[in-house]
Amino acid sequence: MTKGRKTTFDERVEIVQYCIAHDHNYAETAAEFGISYQQARSYTVKYETGGVNALQDRRGRLKPVEEMSELEKLRAENKILRAEKERAEMEVSFLKKLDEIERRRG
After folding, report:
1. Residues whose CB is less than 8 angstroms from the CB of residue 28 and which lie 6 or more positions away in sequence, other chains included
2. Three-point CA angle 46, 2, 40, nearest 5°
3. Domain chopping of the chain, boundaries
4. 63: phi then psi, degrees, rounded to nearest 5
């Protein structure tokens, strides 16, 4: 059983083309490109259900604001506000420490 490996978008397109041209022979495709059987099958299924854009690696990327539901927008805004609050609290804590250190010196 071959371990999977990272692939680029162009490689995924080439893998899908090869697999479809060879009658969906996932094992042969996996051996040809040095990927796992599951990767060959997954890329082909993604392509057939979502087209070429489905082969893009979207992990770690946010949805564009236009595609977000109202709940998702509110959650994103909430996350930003929490991060800003945490940063402000850290800033205040740092300034208090700095003030304390300066008082000890002087």
Report:
1. 22
2. 15
3. 9-55, 65-105
4. -70, 145
Give Cβ neighbours of residue 32 (< 8 Å, ≥ 6 apart).
18
Other beta carbons within 10 Å of 34? 12
pLDDT tens by residue, 27-71: 999 999 999 999 999 999 999 999 988 898 877 777 777 888 889
Phi-psi region of 60 (alpha: psi -120 to 50; beta: other; left: phi over 0): left
Residue pair 51/61 in contact (Cβ under 8 Å)? The answer is no
| pLDDT interval class at 1 (50, 70, 90) | low
**CB-based contact 95:87 (threshold 8 Å):** no
